[in-house]
Amino acid sequence: MLTLFELLDPYLFSASQFCCSSIAVFIQIQGCLICLTLALGWALAAYVRKREVKRMRRSLKDGNTFAFLCHNINELEHSFQSKLPRVSVIMPLKGFGEHNLQNWRSQITSLYGGPLEFLFVVESTEDPAYEAVCMLLENFNDDIETHIVVAGLSTTCSQKIHNQLVGVEKMHKDTKYVLFLDDDVRLHPGSIGALTTEMEKNPDIFIQTGYPLDLPSGTFGSYCIYEYHMPCSMGFATGGKTFFLWGGCMMMHADDFRKDLYGVVTGLRDGGYSDDMTLAAIAGQHKRLITSPPVAVFPHPLASDLSFPRYWNYLRKQTFVLESYINRVNWIMNRALFAVHFYLSWGFVAPYIMAMIHTAAALRVYFKGYSFDGTSPTGGLVLVGCLAISTLIELFSMWTLTKVEIQLCNDLSPEGPPVSLGSYNWLLIFLAMLVDNFLYPISAIKSHFGQSINWSGVRYHLRNGKISKIDRKKESAFRYSDLAGKYLYGYKGARHASFISYLTGGLVRRHQRKQSQD
């Protein structure tokens, strides 16, 4: 009696032979080329970041103990520092998570020598971030210039954009540059100074940006996020001009907002969903310069409980961005990105499916001793070998870039907690590559036909590329933010030890001050 495997063998061998056809061979060779192209891009990005690491260490060896702050130690002289322009840092907040305190501390303890103000913008005092920020700032008293701004609810754009624009309205009248930061960005002591220096050197810069280095927490969802961001990272590691923009770190001229240059304010306010995609479209339309300095890479710790469903919702948000646009040219660009990413994602996954078929067929031939008059199913093993080699080269290149960026982050924050490469699980990263590329087209299709998305507890609906409806009904499935695991609706049920300990410490300090006043 034939076993199940023996019954399936003819279909397996037929599939293996089909995978040796011309079109199938093309798809498999294309998959190898995609792997090698990614490897080349990451190698070039690693070269740019490594060059900065070598420059810093050479400067340190030459006696500049503050190489992590500036290239030229003479720039730390009072005569130079006193001439630095005023910068306003605007941080739109939503919820509170396990890494927020450390991230906020890294932002407000910047060693920038010029006038500097920080505006923490929340939608209401009921936001979990409000009380946490209040307690954090009590530790610094009058050492830094900070403001907590209550923006209210957005009605015409995403809540993040609304918070950013309210922050712009409240910034100091003498502010020359405005820096938008996400609350999950961990800055280096010299980051604000480095960004400002580049803006001063080249007034033609429209926007300066950077990119995060994801620190996976060990969950499969966190590795999927890391893998999703890595291909984009090569576009930010140019050492200068780029076409990419990350909303987590954007420095711009404050006057561009005061004058509504190119409609930056109206473009964001009137139906804007994504801050970075909207501003990138404006920059492209008016041929303005976007740059990313080599030191603008920031550690981005992911939530320890980042589940796969939360990764899926994050992926949905990323593909949903392609459904928003501000003009016809922006729409065409988004459709082109949609098509290219769709094709390349499944073009990346398909060869691995074919490789599994080839391998399974070859194993059945080996163990059962089958003989064939025509082409043997084992012929596909050559293609399997090519794909395996290409994959190893790709993973090695990704490993190299991650290693170099970790070195750079550690050198830029010598007093901060060191980042380590040892916690990365490369088998899970490989599996995440397959899962992420398989799911991206599915997510893109769902976003295209769904035209709505839940972002941090708020559901946005699009019409003609702009937000047309905002629904704030609390959905039980979205009590936490996707990446940082921030509790969105209040403290009840929050289990983050960092928050509890900090909250307790804040209450004790308040009690002590009250007693001293009495």
Written description of the protein model:
The longest helix has 41 residues, at 328-368. The N and C termini lie far apart (92 Å). 52% of the residues lie in helices and 12% in strands. Helix 1 (4-18) packs across helix 13 and helix 12 (308-320) packs across helix 15. The chain is an alpha/beta fold and 518 residues long. A 7-stranded mixed beta sheet has the order 3-2-1-4-7-5-8, with helices on both faces. A 3-stranded antiparallel beta sheet has the order 10-11-12. It has a two-stranded parallel ribbon with strand order 6-9. It has helices at 4-18, 22-61, 78-81, 100-108, 128-138, 159-170, 191-201, 220-233, 254-258, 264-269, 275-285, 308-320, 328-368, 381-412, 426-450, 497-517; strands spanning 87-92, 116-122, 145-150, 177-181, 205-209, 211-215, 249-253, 289-291, 297-301, 452-455, 458-463, 466-471. The chain has 16 helices and 12 strands.
Key traits:
518 residues, 7-stranded mixed sheet, alpha/beta, Ceramide_glucosylTrfase, 3-stranded antiparallel sheet, 12 strands, 16 helices
